[in-house]
């Protein structure tokens, strides 16, 4: 069993994040293809960490940094936000790390921020990720046709959304699935009573 934790992004993560973002395994699933330089990255890093509408975490697996998770467009008035994550190290794929991170982010959005909707956009070619989102109860709300350019070609993007009420229905099944893989998931209030 692996131990997965989310910790806040810190100054010491600056160079690591740039290397991850420029790696072919990560950039293949991002909107932009270009190699990100230090100036562009530093601007993003300095602005993003202090923007109250964003939140960033380093995904650690057995104490080692392995990826990034984030919330964006946090809107407390309309009670919604967007999210994304990536695992930069191929050696942790297939261990349920992405699934555990998804569970933790959803719990944070609905349980701590008390938002009503979590949404995301995924390249249609990244079927593994959008299918994982659907497993968690996300519903396909949009197909953005020819939405981004990847390697000189227009690519479609899937828009998915999860409501707090959707999560109420899926949470127990997803918690049990993670427990079966050896992850520690606290019981819901109903189970604890």
UniProtKB/TrEMBL annotation:
Signal peptide: none annotated. Gene3D superfamilies: 3.40.630.30. It comes from the Bacteria. One of its GO terms (molecular function) is acyltransferase activity, transferring groups other than amino-acyl groups. Residues 4-165 form the N-acetyltransferase domain. InterPro entries: Acyl_CoA_acyltransferase, GNAT_dom, PseH. The keyword Nucleotide-binding does not apply. Keywords: Transferase. PANTHER family: GNAT-FAMILY ACETYLTRANSFERASE, SPERMIDINE N(1)-ACETYLTRANSFERASE. This is UDP-4-amino-4, 6-dideoxy-N-acetyl-beta-L-altrosamine N-acetyltransferase. It comes from Caulobacter vibrioides. The gene is pseH.
């Amino acid at each position: 069993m692996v131990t997965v934790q989310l910790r806040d992004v810190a100054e010491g993560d600056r160079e690591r994040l740039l290397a991850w973002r420029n790696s072919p395994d990560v950039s293949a699933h991002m909107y932009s293809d270009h190699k990100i330089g230090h100036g562009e990255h530093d601007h993003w890093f300095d602005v993003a960490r202090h923007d109250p509408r964003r939140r960033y975490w380093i995904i650690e697996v057995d104490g080692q940094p392995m990826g990034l998770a984030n919330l964006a467009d946090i809107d407390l008035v309309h009670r919604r936000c967007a999210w994304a994550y990536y695992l930069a190290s191929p050696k942790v794929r297939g261990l349920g790390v992405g699934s555990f991170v998804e569970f933790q982010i959803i719990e944070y959005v609905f349980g701590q921020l008390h938002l009503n909707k979590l949404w995301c956009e995924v390249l249609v070619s990244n079927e593994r990720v959008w299918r994982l989102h659907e497993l968690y109860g996300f519903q396909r709300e949009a197909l953005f046709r020819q939405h981004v350019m990847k390697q000189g070609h227009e690519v479609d993007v899937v828009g998915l959304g999860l409501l707090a009420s959707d999560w109420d229905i899926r949470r127990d099944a997803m918690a049990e699935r993670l427990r079966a893989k050896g992850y520690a998931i606290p019981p819901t209030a109903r189970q604890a009573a």
